[in-house]
């Protein structure tokens, strides 16, 4: 019955089935919770700088409409397909429900390698993608945000394109916009800030002192960079970082601020220094206290999970840990504290929600208010997950996903099935 396939979708499905068995969800109600409500596939033609034309495939998947509009990022990546986008939309639903946000999950993407486009071509593609999506999105229907390969600038182009169509400025159509065009203070940093706030909560739980502890961060984009900076602020030594162009490891600690300056200027880690060059394949298995995968999904499989030497696994990326790795991490429960993705990286969508609320009301908050409300919601979800782990003796991913799935299921039952 499904148009969705591929390893990432299979992973989201397998995780859902585990949760459905655990919470004893009736068999005939499972498909209604798992399969997305809508999926849109589009072709986006653009003019290339050399005068030729090119067409890129784009997607948007809206998972469920039960709790409010859908919400989710837009990914520009050479490997995006509809199965991956659907999986990311499903995870987004459990994440929003766990955090108590009035949204269903969504996700979008274009199959494109962004560095292969000039800035003008990227603008053309971003605007055409939003133009094609206008019939299917809206501030009370589906609200976009950044994800891998997109940023504040792309969100500004999305917002401008939608606004031109509407005939007036509609800032609330996207979140993760620049502050200068209706964004909120604290959104750019929110995901990494949330990751590290929760890593510190986990450190408290296992009795780890942040001062002098060590961390490795995989992925040095928006989330990875901010996570590294926030770890540094708390006295944690960042000993390893990587992106798709380079991998650096130094047990004495890496110069985080210099790395951030280099990537801000050059976009990639390559060219920083050859001195600390390391093997990206073994980086995750190096000894450290806090491991932060902040790049791709499916980077930790079963064999890798056996090799991990960290004490806290803070899943900043979506879906970095595969189901076979979850089995291993379940066995290693006392050794490694896992902060599952739908909790760990929820800071991004929480502050996106604040941005949407501020845009709707045209009433803007100070950064300390944004951060205080962010940590309040993260702490509440963290405590709920820990309480559920203790009550049912389940691992953190099971506890977090069960809370999310149960909230969506409860709302569906109360609203009923039409007609
Ligand atoms: P980004 O595009 O800013 O950065 C992605 C980083 O991953 C880049 O440094 C890239 O070089 C690196 N990377 C790509 N392939 C890699 C590889 N094979 N090995 C090592 N590094 C690799 O994206 P982002 O916004 O930082 O998102 C990173 C992850 O966090 C994604 O899984 C995304 O879904 C998730 N996430 C992002 C947000 C957000 O607010 N941006 C919110 C929640 C979750």
Bound molecules: nicotinamide-adenine-dinucleotide
Shape: globular
Beta percentage is 15-25%
Count of helical stretches? 15
Structural class: alpha/beta
> What's the assembly state of these chains?
single chain
> Spans of 5+ residues with little confidence (pLDDT < 50)?
none
Helical content stands at 40-55%
Strand order across the largest sheet:
8-7-6-9-10-11
Describe the structure.
The chain has 15 helices and 11 strands. The chain is of the alpha/beta class. The strands form 2 sheets. The protein has a 6-stranded mixed β-sheet. It has a 5-stranded mixed β-sheet with strand order 1-2-4-3-5. Helix 13 packs across helix 14 (367-392) and helix 14 (367-392) packs across helix 15 (396-415). The protein starts with 6 loop residues before the first helix and ends with a helix. The mean pLDDT is 97. Nicotinamide-adenine-dinucleotide (NAD) binds next to helix 7.
């Amino acid at each position: 019955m499904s148009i969705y396939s591929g390893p990432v979708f299979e992973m989201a499905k397998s995780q859902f089935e585990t949760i459905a068995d655990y919470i004893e969800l009736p068999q005939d109600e499972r498909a209604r919770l798992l399969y997305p409500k809508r999926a849109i596939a589009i072709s986006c033609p653009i003019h290339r700088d050399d005068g030729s034309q090119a067409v890129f495939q784009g997607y948007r998947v809206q998972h469920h409409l039960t709790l409010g509009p859908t919400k989710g990022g837009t990914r520009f990546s050479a490997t995006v397909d509809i199965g991956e986008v659907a999986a990311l939309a499903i995870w987004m639903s459990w994440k929003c429900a766990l955090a108590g946000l009035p949204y269903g999950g969504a996700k979008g993407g274009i199959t494109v390698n962004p560095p292969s486009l000039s800035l003008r071509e990227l603008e053309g593609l971003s605007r055409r993608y939003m133009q094609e999506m206008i019939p299917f999105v809206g501030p009370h229907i589906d609200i976009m945000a950044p994800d891998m390969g997109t940023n504040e600038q792309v969100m500004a182009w999305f917002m401008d394109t939608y606004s031109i169509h509407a005939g007036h400025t509609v800032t609330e159509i996207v979140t993760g916009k620049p502050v200068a065009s209706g964004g909120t203070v604290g959104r750019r940093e929110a995901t990494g800030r949330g990751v590290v706030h929760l890593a510190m909560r986990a450190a408290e739980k296992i009795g780890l002192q942040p001062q002098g502890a060590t961390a490795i961060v995989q992925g040095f984009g928006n989330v990875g960079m901010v996570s590294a900076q926030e770890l540094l602020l708390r006295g944690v030594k960042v000993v390893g970082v990587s992106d798709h162009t380079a991998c650096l490891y130094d047990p004495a600690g890496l110069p985080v601020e210099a790395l951030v300056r280099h990537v801000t200027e050059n976009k990639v880690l390559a060219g920083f220094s050859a001195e600390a060059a390391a093997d990206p394949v073994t980086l995750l298995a190096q000894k450290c206290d806090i491991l932060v995968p902040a790049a791709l999904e499916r980077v930790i499989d079963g064999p890798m999970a056996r090799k991990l030497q960290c004490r806290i696994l803070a899943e900043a990326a979506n879906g970095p840990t595969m189901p076979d790795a979850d089995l291993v991490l379940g066995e290693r429960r006392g050794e490694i504290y896992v902060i599952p993705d739908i909790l760990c990286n929820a800071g991004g969508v929480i502050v996106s929600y604040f941005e949407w609320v501020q845009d709707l009301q045209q009433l803007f908050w100070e950064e300390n208010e944004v951060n205080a409300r962010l940590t309040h919601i993260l702490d509440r979800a963290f405590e709920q997950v820990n309480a559920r782990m203790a009550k049912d003796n389940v691992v953190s991913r099971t506890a977090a996903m069960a809370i999310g799935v149960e909230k969506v299921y409860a709302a569906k039952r109360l609203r009923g099935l039409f007609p």
